[in-house]
Amino acid sequence: MPSTSEQMRWDQRYRAGEILFGEEPSLFLREQAFRFTPGMKALAVADGQGRNGVWLASQGLDVLSVDISETGLQHARELAARRSVALQTEVCDLTTWTPPLTGFDVVVEISIHFPGEVRRQVHRSLSEAVKPRGLYLIEAFHENQCGRASGGPKDRDMLSTRDKLLEDFREFSILELMEGTVLLNEGPRHQGEAWMVRMVAQK
Fold first, then answer.
1. What are residue 192's DSSP bridge partners?
2. Contact, 66 vs 46, CB < 8 A?
3. Which of the chain's termini has less CB crowding within 10 Å, N or C?
4. pLDDT tens-digit profile of 45-96?
5. Residue 85, CA distances (Å) to 76, 78, 80, 182 in order
6. Residue 117 and residue 158: Cα distance in Å, rounded?
């Protein structure tokens, strides 16, 4: 079950009615559309109000969207209904959740941040959910983002780098790994120039 304090914090944020990160998917995720084929099983982790999971479902993927907030996932289901796509949802805390082993062709992790040791543990767990030859996609705020107002945590330990991802996914083949500035336009919480790291890895 989710941590009560974290669940309450995110429920309160989403309950205010604001679409915090917009309803359109990450630009990085859209750019990876050529890697997806209808029928693939996808896991969208910490999917919030559903922008990335619903987009994956619109590409014909069989999507499980998970998040710590039931309020966020309620919006995700409403968004899926408005766009006439099927979306499975599950409330979970990624720090304690055990995903199905080798259950997914694609795992998508967009703008998720944990302290170092927790991040490594979550990545170990989620890596086991990827099928052989399956893909793991990450977009995360970079350490150089620290102090910028365009989004992301203020704690440097919760920010990412290419070296951190290479260490966490050393058993994967790295297909793409980029870090640098991008222009974000994702709802009120992700606006402006931001330092990001983006990875596509294959098991």
1. 184
2. yes
3. N
4. 999 999 999 999 999 999 999 999 999 999 999 999 999 999 999 999 999 9
5. 11, 10, 5, 29
6. 10
The percent of residues in the chain predicted with pLDDT above 90, rounded, is 87
Structure tokens at 156: 């440097």
For the entire predicted model, the pTM comes to: 0.94
Is pLDDT at 1 greater than 60 in this prediction?
Answer: no
Cα 21 from Cα 19, distance rounded (Å): 6
3-state secondary structure of 118: helix
- Tracing tokens 């996808």 back to the chain, one arrives at 42
- Helix 70-82 to helix 51-58 angle (10° resolution) is 30
Q: Could you give the domains of the chain?
A: 4-202 (3.40.50.150)
Distance CA 55, CA 39 (A): 14
- The two three-digit tokens of residue 178, written as one number: 């980029």
What is the Cα Rg of the chain in Å? 16
User: What's the length of the chain?
Assistant: 203
